[in-house]
């Protein structure tokens, strides 16, 4: 009779563990699914709607043989020598 009670308690522990694992995975799978749905909605909102029956955009012609000059400001070095400090009088 004692063995019968031990096996019932052991089976109860095993079933409780199995039930916990099922619930644990169900919760995490549902959270991942909701995150995926939100990401899909965001991607659809960010993407521009398709433009039917329009020609693809034409690229601007590249200038041929002409060099391109960029205006760059020259870097100024910090002063290595400073003048004497000035006296400031507060009223």
What coarse outline follows from CA principal-axis ratios?
flat
Number of continuous helical runs: 1
Q: Structural class given helices, strands, pairing?
A: mainly alpha
For the report, how would you describe the main beta sheet? none
Give the N-terminus to C-terminus distance in angstroms. 103 Å
Mean of residue pLDDT values: 80
Characterization of this structure:
With 91 residues, the protein is mainly alpha-helical. Helices cover 49% and strands 0% of the residues. It has 1 helix and no strands. The longest helix is centred in the N-terminal third of the chain and has 45 residues, at 2-46. It is flat, with a radius of gyration of 37 Å. The termini are far apart.
Task: Give a short summary of the structure.
This protein has 91 residues and is an all-alpha fold. It is built from 1 helix and no strands. The model has no long low-confidence stretch (mean pLDDT 80).
Outline the fold blueprint.
Layout lengths: L1 H45 L45
């Amino acid at each position: 009779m004692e063995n019968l009670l031990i096996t019932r308690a052991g089976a109860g522990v095993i079933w409780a563990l199995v039930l916990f694992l099922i619930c644990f995975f169900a919760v995490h799978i549902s959270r991942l699914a909701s995150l995926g749905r939100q990401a899909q909605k965001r991607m659809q909102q960010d993407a521009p709607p398709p433009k039917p029956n329009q020609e693809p955009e034409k690229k601007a012609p590249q200038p041929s043989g002409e060099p391109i000059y960029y205006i760059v400001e020259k870097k100024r070095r910090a002063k290595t020598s400073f003048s004497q400090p000035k006296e400031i009088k507060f009223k």
